[in-house]
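thread: overnight batch results

M.L. [08:02]
morning all. the overnight job finished for the chain we discussed friday. pasting input first so we're all looking at the same thing
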Amino acid sequence: MLNVHDLERRWLRYKIKSYAPVMISTIFILFGFIAALIYYPFSSRPEAQVDEVLIVSAPIKASFIKEVTFSPVTENIQENTLNIDVPQNTQYTRTSRTLVLKPSLHFMDNIEEGINPYLSDVNEEPLAYEIQQHYTNNISQVNEQVQTKTQTPIVKKKMLTIVTQKNENDLKDVIRRFKNNKNPALSLFIAKRYYELKKYQKSYNYALMTNEIDKEIDDSWIIFCKSLVKLGQHELAVVTLKTYLKTNKSSQAKILLRKIQAGNFR
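M.L. [08:03]
and the structure it wrote out:
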């Protein structure tokens, strides 16, 4: 028996192969026609005419610079000769001055947090300069050279005398102010002053007050322990310094502790 389906497929393939050249040629013709329609309008347009513009620059006018001549102005300059009489034998005498410095504690009025450096009032006497000049007038003649003799002035060296005086009234005023505002800077200053005056019991008391107000002030602990040593409390001073050094790294406290233990500080 014949396979009908196979025959139909073969017949369809044959038809397609027979019509394929015609279809391909037809497609190429259509593409060519469409391309011709698109290209023809652009090629048929007239070329745009460009008008040439001739740029003519205006002639440059020549500029002429006039020469200006300057005639030098001549003036009659007269030379004036000035004859100066130079004083000779000039002597300078300078008086010495003496400064007397008296310390005062009124500067403590402006202390807020720290201690200002110790200042003192200066009573300065004005310098009196006595200059004695002896003039010898010599009439200068024409074509003579003026000869001058200069002498080195004799100046005496300044004498500075400083006299320090401690005023108990000013110290009392600082103590009164400390009682009012409890400023640790004031109490530390008072402790140092009493230690200088060798009043070790009072310096011990005010250093202790300073430590109670502010425990981080290194100088107050140093004055406190020094006062203890001066009062004969060596062991208490050593214990205090060791306790302080556990929480603070103070080089002054270490040095003082070594001196007390070695017996160099009494």
